[in-house]
């Protein structure tokens, strides 16, 4: 891992308790320094992506409560279609959608509140799932030659004030 990436990314071996502990210490230090931290509390991609979340690990919630920082649930409804968890690295052409939900305060919460907070975040994230996006997609055909005269177009749409927390990113 290069010097730039290693400063922005906290490496964790999910199967190693020592590594998980070190990662939590690094994350706490980042929060104390005023830097945001993104944690994927499932720890891996779901067996039923876009349909069901895996059990969330509690560490992220304990960390947010201990540090007194808000949690911002993020739903990535189409990520599994862009980069499915299949053998080998396979990136597929797919639009991406990232929804930033309202921040949840951890002020006045204690470690005993972590399970309820964990469930609340899971419910919020799952509420934005799109039924039509469930499952692993077929292999991409975007690299196949286009028929003569075929054109592509890019759509750009302005986000209304009501949907300012939703960001849809088309791949290009």
Summed over residues and divided by their number, the pLDDT gives a mean of 76
Please give the order of strands in the largest beta sheet: 1-2-3
**Number of E strands:** 3
| Low-confidence region ranges | 152-172
Instruction: Give the SSE order as H and E letters.
Output: HHHEHEHE
- Helicity range of the residues? 25-40%
Keywords: Acyltransferase, Lipid biosynthesis, Lipid metabolism, Transferase
Protein name: 1-acyl-sn-glycerol-3-phosphate acyltransferase
Pathway: Lipid metabolism
Region (Disordered): 135-172
Structural account:
The chain is an alpha+beta fold. The chain has a domain of about 110 residues. A three-stranded antiparallel sheet has the order 1-2-3. Helix 2 runs parallel beside helix 3. The chain is globular and about 60 Å long.
Keywords, please?
globular, alpha+beta, three-stranded antiparallel β-sheet, disordered C terminus, 7% strand, 172 residues
Produce the secondary structure layout.
Elements lengths: L2 H6 L8 H16 L26 H9 L6 E3 L2 H4 L13 E5 L13 H13 L39 E4 L3
Antiparallel strand pairs: 1-2, 2-3
Helix pairs in contact: 2-3
In summary, what is this structure?
This is 1-acyl-sn-glycerol-3-phosphate acyltransferase. This protein is 28% helix and 7% strand.
